[in-house]
Specification:
A hairpin with a 2-residue loop joins strand 2 and strand 3. The chain has 6 helices and 5 strands, in the order H-E-H-H-E-E-H-E-E-H-H. It has a 5-stranded antiparallel beta sheet with strand order 1-5-4-3-2. With 225 residues, the chain is an alpha+beta fold.
Length: 225
């Protein structure tokens, strides 16, 4: 059975200096974009496949396969989609509900690709998640400007999918979300928001890991499709 070590989603606060960095000894790609933060949630699991197979499967995992995840993501994305339609901040077009929700589809929900390498992919967004519909979306920051952005009233969120080898035939997938708040008022607002949203966010990640485990237990041709 795969081993997992997820910290409680309802208690996401961690020190500003990541313990993961000291443990791994090498700089994480996410450290280039959000090295200091106020909140973090980390979920990890071991899969008995090589790292490249694990990361490919994680990138192609469709979370909308699970009806509960689809309902939660659709509900949370409504404000961002409304703002995107009003400002046409992405591609000048208007889109209906997404049929799939993979890593590549996250840009439809207000995320921007910050960087990637063979073992890690990092997405980010600047917004006000505690706001009502139509007011959550923030500015689009280029990867080079994301780390330095510090306008009060907004939250900077970075999401990382990282795969590290474990032995010769297995790998560890780590899903990490970091949130940085530049001012005390935004920090208080996000804390209140996270008290409600945090448990659901943790549930989505745990279910996603179970879906991925199911996929990777399939025969070779099926899991690499």
């Amino acid at each position: 059975m795969p081993a997992s070590d997820p910290p409680p989603a309802q208690q996401p606060e961690v020190p500003a200096v990541p313990a993961a960095e000291a443990a791994q000894g090498a700089q994480l790609l996410i450290d280039q974009f959000l090295p200091r933060y106020d909140f973090a949630v980390v979920h990890a699991q071991v899969f008995r496949v090589p790292p490249e197979v694990c990361l490919r499967a994680a990138r192609n995992l469709d979370l909308f396969r699970h009806p509960a995840i689809r309902a939660l993501l659709d509900l949370r994305a409504l404000p961002g989609r409304a703002a995107s339609r009003l400002t046409r901040r992405r591609d000048g077009g208007d889109h209906g509900p997404a049929a799939m929700f993979r890593v590549a589809d996250m840009t439809r929900y207000g995320w921007d690709l910050l960087g990637e390498n063979p073992s890690e992919i990092v997405l980010g967004q600047i917004g006000r998640p505690w706001k009502a519909a139509g007011a959550t979306a923030g500015p689009v920051a280029a990867p080079a400007a994301f780390a330095a952005y510090d306008k009060p009233g907004y939250a900077k969120v970075a999401l990382s999918l990282r795969v590290d080898p474990r032995g010769t035939t297995s790998s560890i997938l780590t899903i990490e979300t970091r949130v940085a708040l530049p001012d005390a008022a935004s920090l208080r607002r996000f804390r209140r928001y996270w008290m409600v949203i945090g448990p659901f966010s943790g549930l989505i990640r745990r279910v996603a890991l179970r879906l991925l485990d199911t996929d990777l237990r399939q025969p070779g041709p099926a899991r690499t499709a």
